Amino acid sequence: MIHLEPQSYRDTKFHERMFIYFSRLFERYRKEHKLIIPIAIFTSDEIREEQDTLELVIPEHQILRFQFLKVELRKQNWRRFIDSDNAVAAALLAKMGYTTREAREVRREFLRMFMKLKTRLDQGRLALIMSVADLYFKPDLAQDEEIIKELMIQYPEEGEAIMELMPAWKRWGYEEGIAEGIEQGIEKGQAEIIRKLLLHGFTPEDVSKAVELPVDEIKKLM
User: Fold this and answer.
1) DSSP labels, 47-104
2) Distance (Å, rounded) from C-alpha 210 to C-alpha 194?
3) Please, is 60 exposed, middle or buried when counting C-beta atoms within 10 Å of its C-beta (0-12, 13-18, 19+)?
4) Closest to 114 measured CA to CA, from 87, 149, 80
5) What pLDDT, on a 0 to 100 scale, did the predictor assign at position 34?
6) What DSSP string describes 208-222?
7) Cβ contacts of 159-163, under 8 Å, gap ≥ 24
8) Which of 67, 76, 204, 214 is buried most, with the most CB atoms less than 10 Å from its CB?
9) Cβ–Cβ under 8 Å, residues 104 and 143
10) In the chain, domain spans
11) Do residues 129 and 90 lie in contact, with contact meaning Cβ atoms separated by under 8 Å?
C-alpha cells in the first residue's frame, strides 16, 4: 500500500502527524497488506530540510524509529523531468527549483510536455493538469502564444498537435466572464479548476462531490 501525503505549509510537527496516519493505516490494513510505504510530498516555496523521522528512545534502548520517504519539490532540478511523459511531473514542474531567469524556459518546457501528453490523455485529464499547473505558473497569454509559435518552428513534426492546442489553450486557460458574485465564498484557484472541469464534460454533481461544495454553487460556474 502506498500512502501519499501532500504538505504545502510549514509544520514542525508534521513528522508526528505522518506517524499517526501510518499507524492508523497499519492498524486497519496490516492483515491485508504486508508493506505500507509512506511518502510525503512537500510543495512549499521555501527550500528547507524537512524532518522525516520520529524517534522515541530511553537510555540504551530505542523504542521506536519511524522514517517516511519524502519528496521536496523545491530541491528537485526541473531539467531532470522535461523529457518525462509523466503527467504529474508536468503539472508540478512550476513547483520545482528554478531561478527567476529560468521561469520562461520552465514554462516553455511545460508546454512541450503538455503537447506530448495530448496524444495519450483525454480532454478532462488534460484540463486538470493545466488547471493545477496554472495555479503555480501564473500564465501570460501573450507569452504562451509566443512560446507555442517557437515550438512550432523548432518541432515542425508536432505542428498539427500545436495548432489543435492553441484554441483549447485559450479556452481552458484564459476565458473570462466569471461574475464576481459567483466567486464569493469560493477560493479563486478552486473556482478556476471547477470551471475548467465543467467545460470538459464533468457533471455538476460529480464536481460537487469532488470539491465538497453545494451543487447550486457549482452550477453558477457553468
Assistant:
1) ------EEEEEETTEEEEEEE-EEEEGGGSBGGGTTT---HHHHHTGGGSB--GGGHH
2) 10
3) exposed
4) 87
5) 87
6) HHHHT--HHHHHHT-
7) 161/115, 161/118, 161/119, 162/115
8) 204
9) yes
10) 2-74, 78-220
11) yes
Q: Is residue 4 classed as helix, strand or coil in its secondary structure?
A: strand
What is the C-alpha to C-alpha distance for residues 157 and 148, in angstroms, rounded to an integer?
A: 13
Do you know the residue count of the chain? Answer: 222
d(CA 198, CA 190) in angstroms, rounded, equals 12
Give residue-wise pLDDT tens across range 76-120. 999 999 888 888 888 889 889 888 889 899 988 988 888 888 778
Run of H or E residues at 37: strand 37-42
CA–CA separation, 30 and 219 (whole Å) = 42
For residue 14 the three cell numbers come to 508534521
| Pair 218, 208: CB distance under 8 Å | yes
C-alpha cell at 82: 522535461
Q: Write the pLDDT tens digit of every residue in 131-182.
A: 788 778 877 778 877 887 788 777 776 656 665 655 555 555 544 433 344 4
Grouping H, G, I as helix, E, B as strand and the rest as coil, residue 140 is coil
